[in-house]
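Lay summary. Proteins are chains of building blocks that fold into shapes, and those shapes determine what they do. In this project we predict the shape from the chain. Here is one chain we studied, written as its sequence of building blocks.
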Amino acid sequence: MAKTNDGLVNYAKAQLGKPYWYGTFGNTATQSLLNAKTKQYPAHYQYARMTKYKSQLGERVHDCVGLIKGYLWSKNSWSAPEYNVSQDVSANGMYAKCRERGSISTMPEIAGILVFMNGHVGIYVGDGKVIEARGFHYGVVETKLSERPWTSWGKCPWITYPTGKIYFKACHYGEYSIVDALKSIGENSSFSYRKKIAEAN
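And here is the predicted shape, written in a compact code that computers can read:
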């Protein structure tokens, strides 16, 4: 079954409000999983956090890059994930795998694009919003792209994104021609490039 950008967005939306557990990817939180993760990552599963972790048993849990793996490795938003070693990368490793990527200022307006800062990844869901497994104190939350220190974007290599169209970041308000709009966002406004945009869209 093909994995798509829209599927990733829908999966992420279904996880809103769910807990963050470091080193997980859509697993169901159980006592045996908690024991295993405590042994594997003692710095993250400290004694002071155990009461909260135990209150989350039975929930579907992820870490930041695990939110993406959970989609890739699950048939739907509630089925058990099937581990895939070839796609088991860290947040920084995921960025390194992205064949299409760039600085956040050049991010195309495509839902399902991944956004990155050092050691962390989120999922852009459109309308200037990101869903991210933000950390132990937050869980899976929706945040504004502009209010978090994202530095770069990338297309997940295991997800299909729409093709045939050219996307741009939003132009400045009050622009009345395509030439002015392109100039306002630092894009090429030549006739030949505008022709390419018209053909693609």
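What the prediction tells us: The mean pLDDT is 91.
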